[in-house]
Amino acid sequence: MSGHDSSTRLALLGGTPVRTAPWPQWPARGPDEERVVLAALRDGDWGGFPLPNERSATFAAAFAERHDCEHALCVANGTVSLEVALQAMGVEPGAEVIVPAYTFEATASAALFAGCVPVFADIDPDTWCIDVGSAAALITERTQAIVPVHLAMNIADLDAIGALAGKHGLAVLEDCAHAHGARWRGRGVGSWGDAGSFSFQSSKLMTAGEGGIVTTSDETTLDRLHALVNCGRQRPGAAEPAPVIGHNYRMTDLQAAVLEVQLDRLDHQHEVRARNASRLRAAIEHIDGLSNLRIDDRVTTQAIYQFVFRFDSEAFAGLDRDVFVAALAAEGVPADGRFYESLPVSELLRPDPARYTAWSEALARRPTAECPQAERLAYGESVWLPHQLLLGTEGDVDDMVEAVLKVHGSASDLAGLETAEVERLRQARSAR
Q1: Looking at residue 224, which CATH number applies to its domain?
Q2: Is the overall model pTM greater than 0.70, yes or no?
Q3: Is 406 a catalytic residue?
Q4: How many domains does the chain have?
Q5: Which entry of 69, 182, 381, 403 is 20 to 30 Å from 224 by CA?
């Protein structure tokens, strides 16, 4: 350690961080958000009833058009959008629903909330999206749906998923929580399956703090959605009445007002992120121990919710991935490693067998399949950088690269550190 001056010594060990300047703010906001929220505040039309209210109807129509869908319906959040979409698509209680093992727990828990059984498929190690071969091997007579997740900065293979679903008569629900505005072969995500689910939670590419939306081009699905979201009330002019006991899962018009402005920002933000991501990808290609995801040529518009790459501990003097991201964060670059867990072993997905009987019965029939690719990524290889880091300048990208190179060059100083020791160092640094 004595051979390092303060500029080359790792910040986690007391050195000067590469980056001290603030990153671009998120959520992005400005006078336009203030204007629409103030207008909504003054007219007093704040709630979600009647459904859809004026602003939510206007926003939903614009969002559906942006994603090449006939319809969209605003809902309370992204977990709700998955739950009600499965029900509206006609997936029955007790049915098996195939989901990727590497995603947020809500993809699986929404299936549980809908009375279904999530079944975990492994992921493609090159794209981090669902492995269609793994999914195909899981199909049984109980399987009724598949939920491909467009993850981080990639789109699941919608052509292969469509072919698999067509062969076996499965419904397809696209989980597009990371993929606002993304396009596969020139067509919007959320339009390839029977329905699409989007989230507007605070970290997402469009946000109103919370919120969600379901896209579909099927009238019957839309009718059922309305009843499920709006306390069982039927959509005016519904072609197929859907007698259900619905929830109040409506979005407020205050949220919809903000989202109209957020939608207007989306294309420009995509352009800025894409330009900076290209610079970052090019740099990563030349750093031993890091590798980029493969982006399919059929992805014609990329949505980058998080910039992700793969970490190889051996090239960093045996450094643990979690220590690497801690060191990167100390250098001023927000980073995460265990952003998602592998769902079959996730501590956040431990359903009560007495409440979720279909789940416990399914486990009794067959054990959960192993998902080694998901586990390898979740606990040792994945690195996630939040999308707002890419909304700045080329100099911002260069700071990220400099921080990575600094950690790479001094990785041996951290090798062997335990997680508890890293946390102690982080706390000591933040206390200064």
Answers
A1: 3.40.640.10
A2: yes
A3: no
A4: 1
A5: 182
